[in-house]
């Protein structure tokens, strides 16, 4: 029913990962390729690894000759891409390649009949996804849009923005609990594990709270912040109080500059609290070290609490191998999983996936699990480096990790995030968030 809708209306398909978005895209693309012998069908994915993955996944479904299909990336020469646009009919490409070639006149926009947008939630603002649709509309309104996303938006305005940008006329939404989806999903057991704070975490929280309290007290003294306890702070609340201060006006420049400075410092410290509470000591230490390079944090880093108490304490804990109690629990769960598997059937295969939002904690988790080799064969998947202190994977390395995990080279993946990757790639017997 979803395919039928997508054939005749611009459709946003919202399905959980692994439930068939790629299959739907392949069937729709095949039909437009068959219906329009001179038409161009374009599948756009946000990164080169995803482009390569989707070619393989779609080809396993579509009965289209490989000679009709072309992968296009920014690494290819313009002359190569121009010739491909003329000669081929089905394309898998990154958004910027399509956008740039369309604006340069290399892409025959008048022949576009179907546009598939993977990871469609990225279609915001002036992103290349949106530019392609806008540019195509100036030439022809007669093309189908199929948008794919497991997470189209966090709120109604975000979803509406996506709908407007991609000319969506229909939404097909399914969850794992829908009757027409349940027959195709595996059973799963969800368990919430509550991990109490250990002595080291409680001590760090206490010292760090005193550091935050310095800035909170100053802002209270200026009459621009109304919380008395740092435990009540979160980023959204601070930003609202800062915006209210800015709207008020009527304050001398030196005083206003000091308030802006204190808001910036406290907002950053609140972010550090999340790293400490959620991601562990190593990520928190990296955060504290990075503060030294921030202009607004110079006073903070020269203070006694930071310089003589907090930083030395975190450094000592990390050097001694002390860690967030969640890391101990993850190690315990994964080791027990493979131990049970080995006892039941020494030849059995299993895959485990562990997700963390912060790349430094990914490295910590992987290092801890590496102690359990050869039963636990761990690999990491992180995004590309965003600053000089972070080591990421380039897109070629990401593709290698995807292929290695898919084919069973390693059995435990620790990742910051996973994009769509076609059926069967991100399946596991144990998944830890």
The overall pLDDT, averaged over residues, is 85
Number of strands: 11
Strands of the widest sheet, in order across it, are: 3-4-2-5-6-1-7
The number of helical elements comes to: 16
The fourth-level CATH homologous superfamily of the largest domain is P-loop containing nucleotide triphosphate hydrolases
**CATH topology (fold) name of the largest domain:** Rossmann fold
Could you name the key traits of this structure?
phosphoenolpyruvate carboxylase, domain 3; Rossmann fold; 433 residues; globular; 16 helices; seven-stranded parallel sheet; alpha/beta
Description:
Residues 2-170 form the Helicase ATP-binding domain. One of its GO terms (molecular function) is hydrolase activity. The protein is an alpha/beta fold and 433 residues long. It folds into three domains: 2-184, 3-Layer(aba) Sandwich (Rossmann fold); 199-319, phosphoenolpyruvate carboxylase, domain 3 (Up-down Bundle); 325-432, P-loop containing nucleotide triphosphate hydrolases (Rossmann fold), CATH 3.40.50.300. Helices cover 49% and strands 11% of the residues. It contains 16 helices and eleven strands. The chain has helices spanning 2-8, 21-35, 48-59, 78-87, 95-103, 128-137, 156-165, 199-221, 235-248, 253-279, 281-291, 298-302, 304-319, 325-344, 359-369, 395-406, and strands at 11-14, 40-44, 69-72, 90-93, 112-117, 144-149, 170-173, 352-355, 378-381, 412-415, 430-432. The protein has a seven-stranded parallel β-sheet, sandwiched between helices. The chain has a four-stranded parallel β-sheet with strand order 9-10-8-11, with helices on both faces. Helix 9 (235-248) runs antiparallel to helix 10, helix 10 (253-279) packs antiparallel against helix 11 (281-291) and helix 14 crosses helix 15. The model is unreliable at 419-424 (pLDDT under 50).
